[in-house]
Amino acid sequence: MCSGCRVDRGQVCPEGEDSSVTLFREYLRLRTVHPKPDYDAALRFLDRIAEELENTYMLYLQIVSIMTWEGTNPALKSILLNSHTDVVPVFQEQWKYDAFSAFKDAEGNIYARGTQDMKCVTIQYIQAVRRLKAEGRKLMRTVHLMFIPDEEIGGHEGMETFVNHPEFKKLNIGFALDEGLANPGEAFTVFYGERNPWWITVHCPGSPGHGSRFVENTAAEKLVSVINSFLNFREKEKHRLNTSECLTLGDVTTVNMTMVKGGVAYNVIPAEMDVSFDLRIPPTVNLQEFEKQIKQWCKEAGDDITYEFAQKHMNQNITSTEENDPWWSTFSATCKTMNMTLEKEIFPAATDSRFIRAVGIPAIGFSPMNRTPILLHDHNEYLNEQIFLKGISVYKRLIPALANVPPLPDEA
Ligand SMILES: CSCC[C@H](NC=O)C(=O)O
Ligand SMILES: [Zn+2]
Ligand SMILES: [Zn+2]
């Protein structure tokens, strides 16, 4: 039964492994890894699950799959359980085990790309729903499990497109859960907003000439000035983070110089040099003012400098974590009944939640992994099977609580 793992809660596979863990390991072995993710394998896997769960299963744009568990009052806004199916590449030589073998060591640590980001959450949603259905539970609101590609490469052909698709609107989503991060301590981290990613390339043109001369107005001098301005700001933000007790990474702006381009030969002064930065800007920063600052740095560096963005997210919607917010109060009260401590933060990187929040839907980023080092995108990404299993019980409480939030004033 291990390979198919159609067994349910509490049932144990022949080798004594919980069937949910076996299913998780099976999913981890699918190579949905960039740059050529095997999405077909994921779709076949999900197709089978949908059949097992007897959920309505739809495929949109050939890639986004949605399993729907209809509520007893389907006119009410629904709950979205979102997860992406892709994972980032690995440097296999740096791993202790094959990154797609889902090796489990004696402590129950499962090693594979995607154990934390975010194949764990996908299977936890599925198994929680499976258990609830097996118990004959009926929920008031409809629950949609959405499995989406391309999150790791910016979501252009995934969530960014899908949120504007008429089929997305038809889902009538009131509240969404999406991915978060592990927490090495006892607490669980929850994310109510994200920093905006800005990927910028600054073009520094200059006078060319022979490498033996003191040519005026060179591209390199401008480049150095631009780099210094960005990196001085980086130092300030780093200092602000390191000297404040209450700030987390999501509360400051990070700047990283990630690419430089230019030059053709040792003795030819180039006519242009380019530099690219990855900026992540907290939702509290005035983005117009921030761009003015960038313009100023470019102006100070010399004439004719231009810049362009490869990513420039402007939406700064955050999700309410006020006690009077029905979604948040339900989420946090349910966690409290399980004695979970929550730490509220701004997500430092970008997830598909930014597209969900941008269309006005509240979303919480949450991956139930405490006592776990943050290893997403890292070598030897792993998750302990007990932590993974605990997460299923967490969702088994959260999903009905959220799906039973009484009709809101605008739904009456
Ligand atoms: C700006 S699109 C890139 C999205 C990517 N997400 C996860 O790592 C990130 O770099 O944050
Ligand atoms: Zn992710
Ligand atoms: Zn990721």
UniProtKB/TrEMBL annotation:
One of its GO terms (biological process) is amino acid metabolic process. Belongs to the peptidase M20A family. Zn(2+) 1 binds at H84, D117, E179. This is N-acyl-aliphatic-L-amino acid amidohydrolase. It comes from the Eukaryota. It is found in: Cytoplasm. PROSITE patterns: ARGE_DAPE_CPG2_1, ARGE_DAPE_CPG2_2. It holds the Pfam family M20_dimer. It is an enzyme of class 3 (hydrolase). NCBIfam families: Ac-peptdase-euk (TIGR01880). Zn(2+) 2 binds at D117, E152, H377. Its EC number is 3.5.1.14. Its cofactor is Zn(2+). The active site is at D86, E151 (proton acceptor). InterPro entries: Aminoacylase-1_M20A, ArgE/DapE_CS, Bact_exopeptidase_dim_dom, N-acyl_aa_amidohydrolase, Peptidase_M20, Peptidase_M20_dimer. Keywords: Cytoplasm, Hydrolase, Metal-binding, Zinc. Residues 192-302 form the Peptidase M20 dimerisation domain. GO terms for cellular component: cytoplasm. One of its GO terms (molecular function) is aminoacylase activity. It comes from Anabas testudineus. Its main location: cytoplasm. Binds 2 Zn(2+) ions per subunit.
